[in-house]
């Protein structure tokens, strides 16, 4: 019972069928009422038309009084009895002739199923057809003072047209509407069957169309289940990219692709971190076992301790870097910004790096514009140390490094350029990835770093709403460019 109301298909189907049923019912009811009105109007016309033929024959209408007639001016030789112009004598039909005509009209109406009743002005029934139904002999109200009028009414299965208020008395013409009502009832049944057929057909068509429309959702659900089961390479087939579901499928495919990359990155990151930690630990264990196997000379002990110290320092640097990146991933990367002179900070870092540069006979040239901006002093110092340290580390002996600090519109541009061996184009897109090293392009001396420096540098720059980029050419050098908002 819970599946039925929770199904999107059934909910849409029920609303669709309900709306269709309401529309079809409204149209069919309106059509039935229109047909009823048309048929009743036809009956009313059939009852109204004979009234003008019948009234002259049921009772003579009196001549208008003399006061209502226009008198001509008196002429010579006119007596008192000839004081007005008499209208020409018109033959008036006799009683027998009127009854004969009335019988003829009545026979015609009876043949058509119409009954007739007439009351004279004294309230007496002067004429009635033989098919007058029982209970329809009551004289209708109305008199001549109110004027002539025709009233439509329905009484006990009969449609009647009542003429009252005239000098000829009151007249009723009626006809049974039982056949008409049966015809309308039959029409209602047929319309109901047509409505049911339309709704049933609409239900089937709607079921097919809704199923066809929701088919992509089934594909999306199936792909999501397979991805949840561990198949991150699964993608949704997009049949119509322009539709709403096609756009949804496209967005989900992009999401799944990012999830796959993130998962692969996480796996690689974990493997690289384990590998980085395993090497110094293995060195410490090996040197410790070497020192403890038997008595060694003081020089050997000092060498073992020195190696263990270097390995421990490397592990500490790696741990701190991983902790820093974990804060970035968790959204807990906090910057403590304050206004400061960037040129002064660059000079401090250059002064710290100069001893390393002198060992390799590398010269550092600076071109710094005095710029003040809001930044985290400690974090930007770390960025400068990473960039300058890498530039010195991977620079050839006797090379040079150029540092420039300028403003470009609303941005501060820091560039660190060297003329070292450069980086291959295929390595540039991965340079800011964690634990990524370009060992073939850059010959390292001594123990290498953690492979996390540039990843941390990028996180710090982006935390300052800036961006970092790199360009390089083999044999000509590498340029790192950092852009920070003012």
What does this structure look like?
This protein has 486 residues and is of the alpha+beta class. The protein contains 10 helices and 12 strands. The strands form 3 sheets. The chain has a 5-stranded antiparallel beta sheet. Strands 7-9-10-12-11 form a 5-stranded mixed beta sheet, covered by helices on one side. It has a two-stranded antiparallel ribbon with strand order 6-8. The model is unreliable at 61-91 and 440-447 (pLDDT under 50).
Question: Could you tell me the radius of gyration in angstroms?
Answer: 55 Å
Q: Biggest sheet: strands side by side, in what order?
A: 2-1-5-4-3
Residues in β-strands, percent: 15-25%
What does the largest sheet look like? 5 strands, antiparallel
Determine the number of helices (DSSP H or I, runs of at least 4 residues): 10
Q: What is the 3D form?
A: rod-shaped
Helix/strand/pairing class, anyone? alpha+beta
Mean pLDDT: 80
Extended strand count: 12
- The topology string of helices and strands comes to HHHHEEEEEHHHEHEEHEEHEE
Poorly predicted runs are: 61-91, 440-447
* Helical residues, percent: 40-55%
Q: Oligomer, anyone? A: single chain
End-to-end gap? 63 Å
Short description:
The chain contains ten helices and twelve strands. Helices cover 51% and strands 17% of the residues.
Please specify the SSE layout and strand pairing.
Layout: H1 3-6, H2 8-48, H3 51-58, H4 95-111, E1 114-119, E2 125-128, E3 149-155, E4 158-166, E5 169-176, H5 178-228, H6 244-293, H7 298-329, E6 338-341, H8 342-359, E7 363-368, E8 372-375, H9 377-393, E9 400-408, E10 411-418, H10 453-463, E11 467-473, E12 477-485
Parallel strand pairs: 7-9
Antiparallel strand pairs: 1-2, 1-5, 3-4, 4-5, 6-8, 9-10, 10-12, 11-12
């Amino acid at each position: 019972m819970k599946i039925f109301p929770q199904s999107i298909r059934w909910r849409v189907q029920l609303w669709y069928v309900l709306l269709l049923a309401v529309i079809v019912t409204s149209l069919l009811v309106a059509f039935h009422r229109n047909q009823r009105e048309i048929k009743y109007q036809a009956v009313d016309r059939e009852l109204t038309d004979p009234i003008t033929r019948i009234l002259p024959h049921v009772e003579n209408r009196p001549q208008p009084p003399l006061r209502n007639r226009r008198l001509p001016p008196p002429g010579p030789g006119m007596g008192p009895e000839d004081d007005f112009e008499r209208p020409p004598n018109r033959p008036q039909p006799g009683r027998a002739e009127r009854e004969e005509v009335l019988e003829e009209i009545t026979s015609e109406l009876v043949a058509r199923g119409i009954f007739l009743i007439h009351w004279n002005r004294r309230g007496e029934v002067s004429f009635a057809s033989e098919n007058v139904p029982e209970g329809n002999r009551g004289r209708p109200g109305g008199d001549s003072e109110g004027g002539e009028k025709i009233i439509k009414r329905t009484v006990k299965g009969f449609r009647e047209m009542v003429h009252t208020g005239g000098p000829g008395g009151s007249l009723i013409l009626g006809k049974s509407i039982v056949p008409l009502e049966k015809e309308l009832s039959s029409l209602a049944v047929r319309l109901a069957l047509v409505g049911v057929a339309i709704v049933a057909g609409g239900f089937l068509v709607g079921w097919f169309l809704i199923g066809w429309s929701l088919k992509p959702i089934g594909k999306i659900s199936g792909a999501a289940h397979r991805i949840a089961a561990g198949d991150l390479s699964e993608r949704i087939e997009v049949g119509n990219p322009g539709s709403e579901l096609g756009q949804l499928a496209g967005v989900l495919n992009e999401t799944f692709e990012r999830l796959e990359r993130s998962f692969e990155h996480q796996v690689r990151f974990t493997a690289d971190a384990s590998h980085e930690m395993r090497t110094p630990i293995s060195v410490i264990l090996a040197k410790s076992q070497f020192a403890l196997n038997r008595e060694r000379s003081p020089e050997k002990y000092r060498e073992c301790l020195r190696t263990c110290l270097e390995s421990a320092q490397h592990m500490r640097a790696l741990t701190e870097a991983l902790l820093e990146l974990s804060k970035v991933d968790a959204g807990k990367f906090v910057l403590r910004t304050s206004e400061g002179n960037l040129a002064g900070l660059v000079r401090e870092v250059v002064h710290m790096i100069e001893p390393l540069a002198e060992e390799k006979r590398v010269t550092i040239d600076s071109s710094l514009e005095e710029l003040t901006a809001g930044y985290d002093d400690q974090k930007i110092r770390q960025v400068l140390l990473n960039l300058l340290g890498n530039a010195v580390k991977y620079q050839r002996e006797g090379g040079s490094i150029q540092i420039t600090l300028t403003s470009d519109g609303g941005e501060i541009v820091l560039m660190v350029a060297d003329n070292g061996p450069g980086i291959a184009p295929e390595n540039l897109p991965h340079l800011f990835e964690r634990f990524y090293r370009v060992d073939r392009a850059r010959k390292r001396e001594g123990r290498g770093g953690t492979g996390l420096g540039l990843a941390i540098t990028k996180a710090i720059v982006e935390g300052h709403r800036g961006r970092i980029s790199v360009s390089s050419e083999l044999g000509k050098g590498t340029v790192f460019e950092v852009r920070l908002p003012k």
